Amino acid sequence: MTASRPFEPDLVWRCRDRLLAFERRPLVMGIVNVTPDSFSDGGRHTAPRSAAEHARRLIDEGADIVDVGGESTRPGARPVGPEEELARVLPVVRALCEQTDALVSIDTTKAAVARACLEAGAHIINDVSALQWDPEMAPLAARTGAGVVLMHMQGKPRTMQQAPHYEDVVREVCAFLEERIRAAAAQGVAEQALAVDPGIGFGKTVSHNIQLLAGTQRLAALGRPVLIGLSRKSFLGKLTGREVGDRLCASIAALSFCVARGAHVMRVHDVKESCDAVEVAARLRGGL
After folding, report:
1. pTM above 0.85, yes or no
2. What CA–CA distance (Å, rounded) separates 29 from 269?
């Protein structure tokens, strides 16, 4: 097989004791929802044992990272208390860290949840509030050296899709993420620990989502790994007329486009198919 050209030879993402490089291709993050109400797979893996088995399947299928979440952030979702959220996710994180060498991400906005999961061995805090909702989250990230995903959201899950508005969505999202990078650094979080996420579907219309994906190169110009989560999302359903369980082809098409435009981490439900798409798209982008 012909060796591929370097994908992103100088970019790294430090996640505690792991140093993630993007020399060959983007990474695939598999979604593990331990929730009864997530938009796509809510209720399928509410038992910790089932969720851990699902996560191990994703690892076997090629996931570079598994992202464990115990609180739905779909439009209109109700908040979950830290005790309930922790009861959902901690057994899963602990099992993965004890039984595998997988890179584990905890999808939470609560420092108490993140702290317990990091103590169990997790490596990444995936915070949809970009370290804004819990004042203890940034100090925790700084102290532990955890990788951090800073995501953009207009509003909060319960209200974010009621009337999203932007003058220039790509410019405004880039400005927000740039500000959050500076704010995290000011609180002691190493810049190498940070990744950014434009928050597809979080306070955005179909048009906003399309503009953001088309502007992936502008997000990459911020100098940090760009994580994109678009798998099975409603804008794909609106574009294709497909229900949530029948959006694999649309998800793969959008994923491949994002890789071509410079995305570094793709957060997905369908790991096996996504790994194949990432491999091919990265090869085409690099000219083999």
Report:
1. yes
2. 9
